[in-house]
Design goal:
By secondary structure, this protein is of the alpha/beta class. It has helices spanning about 55-65, 80-90, 110-115, 120-135, 195, 240-255, 260-290, 315-320, 325-335, 345-360, 360-365, 380-385, 395-404, and strands spanning about 5-10, 15-20, 25, 30-35, 35-40, 50-55, 70-75, 95-100, 140, 145-150, 155-160, 175-180, 180-185, 190, 200-205, 210-215, 225-230, 305, 310. Bound molecules: flavin-adenine dinucleotide.
Length: about 400
């Protein structure tokens, strides 16, 4: 069903979908959720200036819209995507002054041992790195952005080294460079809205990007018949996502009685073996790029941390002073996370901040609970719903109330 969004999922595996003109519900015995991820926002002074954009935003301008995002760029963040974007920017004629990787320099012997057999991945990584070397673009490890400056758009960036263990900015060694584009890529955050609404158990796993659904080896969540695969179940890249989808698909077919157990086992085996090999490489990359708490020290009291509701860090600090200890309390006191993005942008960064400021674990700081509709939908589409949700569904009751 193209141009269709899922706006709710119930624990009995019923999805509520909406398209331009209509909406409906589908109940499935086997349901595979592959909801992907969001880019992680890291607030710092000036991050809302035009010309500061995520790695995904820059890629979209180049690949989809064939637009050069800027003339002179600095790239900052963590992970291999920074190298990919640097090469892509260079290819469209943007001068890349440097790539700042917050993580440490890879320990090549350890990496090569873990990556044995995954030569394709290594070759790609080497090609991107060589592209940088050939273009004379410096790659500076344990460095990150401190501040973006400009009147109506980014004109310069202050950056510098970070403590290798915590990524705390070392401001005494800050440098400044003039650019009109700052690309920021601090990785992705799993999109777990649907699995959360579906009632699946979740756990906090920083190395997987944040909250992720609990799953067994065949990708089934705590709700029988409900599977979660790909980045929406933990950030592990495209190759892992497609293998997980295959394993879940075979298992769903087995549960549906379409494949005998032995045949399902035979079909799953090669995908599970490849997954194990890829996850070994991934573990090394995750170790380098795991978000460290010192990034929380980039924002100042005047820095906007919730763009939708224009909440500054100072307001969050006042909420903390008033006794708030988790994201839900901060949301109620400041409106952080109440805007159109429903906390997708601000919650991960503020979870790190609250955890850093209060000494509580990220899991204790909690989350901003998703509410349906998880994607924008027209009231008219809901009015033309082709099949109703159960009469006791709270969202359905809200819709009826709005329409009456
Ligand atoms: C900018 C960027 C560059 C990347 N570059 C690389 C790279 O070079 N190499 C690499 O291996 N990986 C890369 N990745 C990661 C790679 O894209 C992901 O690992 C992979 O796409 C994960 O696949 P997925 O199916 O889990 O999720 P996605 O491919 O993200 O698919 C999820 C889909 O679900 C849809 N969706 C979510 N919620 C709803 C809803 N409620 N209703 C309807 N649809 C919904 C989304 O719109 C999306 O189409 C990159 C990621 C980003 C953001």
């Amino acid at each position: 069903m193209p141009r269709t969004v899922i706006i709710d999922l119930s624990s009995h595996r019923e999805i509520l979908w909406a398209a331009e003109e209509t909406a409906g519900a589908i109940r499935a015995d086997q349901l595979i959720v592959a909801s992907g991820a969001y880019e992680r926002s890291v607030p710092f002074p000036g991050w809302t200036l035009p010309g500061v954009m995520t790695a995904g935003g820059a890629q979209r301008l180049i690949k989809t819209l064939q637009v050069r995002p800027g003339r002179r760029a600095l790239i900052t963040g963590t992970g291999p995507l920074l190298l990919v974007v640097a090469n892509q920017l260079r290819a469209v004629g943007t001068e890349v002054v440097a790539v700042l990787e917050a993580g440490r320099h890879p320990r090549w012997p350890q990496f090569l041992v873990k990556a044995r057999g995954e030569w394709g991945l290594l070759k790609d990584a080497f090609e991107y790195w060589r592209g940088l070397r050939r273009a004379g673009i410096p790659l500076r490890f344990n460095h990150t952005v401190f501040e973006a400056h400009g009147a109506s758009a980014v004109e310069a960036v202050t950056y510098g080294p970070v403590d290798p263990a915590t990524w705390t900015p070392i401001r005494s060694q800050a440098e400044q460079v003039e650019v009109d584009l700052l690309v920021v890529g601090f990785g992705l955050v799993p999109n777990v809205e649907l699995t959360t609404l579906g009632g699946c158990d979740h756990r906090y796993a920083l190395e997987l990007g944040g909250w992720v659904p609990e799953r067994d080896a065949c990708m089934e969540t705590s709700i029988p018949g409900l599977f979660a695969v790909g980045d929406g179940a933990g950030i592990r890249g495209a190759a892992v996502a497609s293998l997980e989808g295959r394993v879940a698909g075979i298992t769903a077919a087995e549960h549906a009685g379409l494949l005998p157990r032995a045949e399902a086992d035979r079909r799953r085996a090669p995908f599970l073996a490849r997954l194990e090999s890829l996850l070994r490489v991934r573990a090394v990359l995750d170790g380098m790029s795991r978000i460290r708490p010192g990034l929380s020290e980039l924002a100042t009291p005047g820095t906007i941390v919730c763009r939708c509701e224009e909440v500054a860090l100072g307001e969050v600090q006042m909420a903390l002073a008033a006794g708030a200890r988790d994201l839900q309390a901060v949301k109620l006191l400041t409106r952080l996370g109440m805007g159109p993005c429903q906390g997708r942008n601000c919650a991960p960064a503020m979870r790190s901040y609250l955890s850093h400021a209060t000494g509580r674990t990220a899991a204790e700081v909690g989350r901003i609970n998703p509410r349906p509709p998880v994607k924008p939908v027209r009231l008219g589409a809901l009015a033309r719903m082709t099949r109703a949700m159960p009469a006791d569904d709270p969202f359905q009751a809200t819709i009826r109330e709005a329409l009456s």
